């Protein structure tokens, strides 16, 4: 009799784990499918009241490693490019943590639940830029190199060492496909 109870409980636990796993997988797929819509809605809700009803279009969004932080690039109807730093709350809703304009290229320190990241956001309108090297000028002086895909909008990141929480600002050097410095 005891063996039947043990097998029943083990089967019940196994089925519960499988159902929970399928539920988490379905929620993750649903989140990814609605990601752009949620990010756009969160940005619009926070920013539109101060923007004279500018319309924004989401150009690029990227998850920072396996963290709960996301960076998005949005373009206003007047051509202004902005970034937004989102975090997922415990209900898996986007919360906007920071918003700023992107004058060409911008380097930011973004704290996440996985540590601090140096994030490069920008626009490559001419598609001439093939690589960006940056050197931070903050409390920690670090150097990063990011190869750039031939895309007009750019979000790249690198994890900072655990003991460094701030490295911005940064200076940039841009290279073309022939590895020649681009003078901007």
Q: Which features characterize this protein?
A:
184 residues, 24% helix, four-stranded antiparallel sheet, elongated, alpha+beta, 2 helices
Summary of the model, kept short:
This protein has 2 helices and 11 strands. The protein starts with a helix and ends with a strand.
Can you walk me through this structure?
The chain has 184 residues and is of the alpha+beta class. The protein is 24% helix and 41% strand. It has helices at residues 2-33, 35-47, and strands spanning 56-63, 69-76, 81-88, 94-101, 105-112, 115-123, 131-136, 143-147, 153-159, 170-175, 181-182. The strands form three sheets. A four-stranded antiparallel β-sheet has the order 1-2-3-4, covered by helices on one side. It is elongated, with a radius of gyration of 21 Å.
How much helix, percentage-wise, in residues? 10-25%
Query: How do the SSEs run, as a string of H and E?
Result: HHEEEEEEEEEEE
Output the strand order for the largest sheet: 1-2-3-4
Query: What is the beta-strand fraction?
Result: 35-45%
Give the integer mean of the pLDDT values.
79
User: What characterizes the major β-sheet?
Assistant: 4 strands, antiparallel
Structural class: alpha+beta
Count of helical regions: 2
Radius of gyration: 21 Å
Uncertain regions spanning at least 5 consecutive residues: none
Query: What sort of overall outline do the alpha carbons produce when their principal axes are compared?
Result: elongated
Alpha-carbon distance between the two ends: 80 Å
Number of strands: 11
